[in-house]
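Structure, all two chains, one model.
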Amino acid sequence: MTPQRIRLDFAPRRARPAAPAIAALAAAALVLLAASVLVGRQWLARAALQDEMARVEAGAARPAARPVGKPGGDARAAARALAGKQVALALERPWDDLLAAMELRPSADVALLSVEPSAQKRTVRITAEARSPQAMLQHLAMLQTDGRLASVWLVSHQRQPQAPGNPWRYQIQGTW
Amino acid sequence: MRSTVSPRSNRRLHLRVGQGGLRLRWLAGRRVAHVLGEAELPWDGTSPLADAVATLLARLGGTAPRGAALEVEIGNALAHFDTVEGTLAGQSDAELAAIAHACVQEMLGSAHEREVRWQLQADERHLLICAIERPLLTALLALADSHGLRLRSIETSFALDWNRHGRAVKDGRAVFVSGDEGESVAALVHDGVVQALGTCARPDELEEAQTPTPAVEMLCNSVGLEHLAVPTRLDAQVARMLASLGLDLDGIERFIAVLAHDDPDSLSSRWTVHAPGAGA
């Protein structure tokens, strides 16, 4: 057996940030990033809708100005109306409720890693890490009973043996 | 003082704190350390350590650059060593700490005045324990602070000697001795694992070793037995340690000693002697 090196050093150990603290900080940064992306998209959609409404209103107020019999005019107006309708639908989504639901977590034992909403499917997929399976199931139960999301189910879960603290990483999906 | 060099920032200081004195060296090189300058000073622990080191630095040609690395070697006589045997696999660090502190408390009376370090051996049955007086460590911290040095490590001579020459005892049963001007530490090693540690008393406290008479020596020489293993002072010390463990010298396959001052009269031919490294 190769003799083990003796590591009996009496020099003061330098304090290093604990690995769980770094992981929690990274998770918090990810949640903030996801939230800012969502808010940014909402703001852009609202601005686009306001522009569209202004254009539609301007068009309705000057019907005589529209060139009569010009081919394609009705098609363009229909396309604009459809786009306006889509933006209106997007704005009708309960973003405040959805964001509040996504941020729900039972305790400090759960860290949100990412939130992926799909506007077309009206679903949201939440990726998170929990210190224990109990914390993961509590998170799932909380979202299921909250009422702001429907059909909430656990898509996948897997233990992370390489990560500090061996957390459970999982994905939850729900619809609104 | 052997030489004087102007220190540069990429070099490091090595301070050896022994029972009777201090030795300060400027070293260069990581794997193989080269001594660039060396100064020694008697020190009995009563005067401030920082002042003594300032004197040594002055002898080496000036002050140390701010932030220079300082490695400290504590002589074996200023440290307490012990081992504990038991089923230690799976014990938490806190449990091992409690065992180590209890052991020091039992041997020295109080563990509070000492800083204790421990290391579980590869067989997970033997815990190596070392304790150093807290005032000495406080003085070293103050020394580094007052000279603007970066304290890189504080290790014992035994640990440094083992890390340099311990590979020689990787299998079989062996005795590994780390020499010191005041007190040597002898380790009983089995397949690379330190199983027991004992200290060898100062030479002036030992009875005279058994030495062959001139007639016996002449007889041995005449039949070509110049290298006959005759019991010497170090043998006697190690034999005592082994006897306390129920063993004797005959059951040992290798005898390794790391000695700074190789005294031929104190060693029999069974010993393989290494010199400590430049950083030791």
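The interface with chain A takes residues 72, 74, 115, 117-119, 121-123, 128, 130, 132, 137, 141, 151-156, 158-159, 162-163, 166-167, 169-171, 189, 191-193 of chain B (CB under 8 Å).
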